[in-house]
Amino acid sequence: MDADAFVLVHGGFHDSRCWERLIPLLRLPALAVDLPGRGAHPAKMADVTLEACVRSVVEDIDESGFGRVVLVGHSMGGATVPVVAARIPDRIAHLVLLSTLVAPEGGSLVDGFVPETRDAAMRRLGTGDDAEIELSEAHHRELLCNDMSEADVAWCLARVGPDSRRLFTDRASRAGLPDSLPRTYIRLRRDQSVTWAQQAHAISLLPGLAVREIDAPHQAMVTHAQELAGILNEIAGV
User: Fold this and answer.
1) Where are the domains of the chain?
2) Where would a tag sit more exposed on the chain, N or C end, judged by fewer CB atoms within 10 A?
3) pLDDT of residue 125
4) CB 202 within 8 A of CB 128
5) Per-residue pLDDT tens over the stretch 79-101
6) Dihedral sign for Cα atoms in the order 92, 98, 163, 151
7) Backbone angles phi, psi at 171, to 5 degrees
């Protein structure tokens, strides 16, 4: 595979720092991006749309100087990375979805929720006009930090913040994503945020995915960095 680097796209309520334990284990250079509204790309959450996230990642790839990349999305990053790959398919050597939500073509992430989790997810999202949403520490612990040591929970909680409701509800098309573009979904057996059933449904919404598995909770890049790096390095052929 002729990949120059990995590009890592975080999930909801996170920023690029969530990849800090993984990056030293990767055998190609890695660019961990910040989606708009955090880190290197500050913005009001009212302005953080799915389209803004797609454009931001494309711009970061353009500015990186890398030719072709392995594009990795985690969790809610599944809204962004397939659309990015559809926009610049010649720059993507492999698309990797790490326990992500996936929208149906032309739909939103909410449209891709399985019935068992849709109601609870919609309650957390709320219906207010304010685009900004923030999870309580209890919700972070329940959804994003299950099966983790207290030290790892503290590490993660120090790296979370608010996010935009629009990333769940904005619709987008991934038309233009070539059937020939290699793609892999990495399932996480102990994920309580994107459940096993939700992961199965996500896989069904994007044809052509190879599937790998790790016996890990939602934050596999924190708790199982070595195993995850091994899969990503293998995908990249390094």
Assistant:
1) 5-236
2) N
3) 67
4) no
5) 999 999 999 999 999 999 999 99
6) negative
7) -100, 150
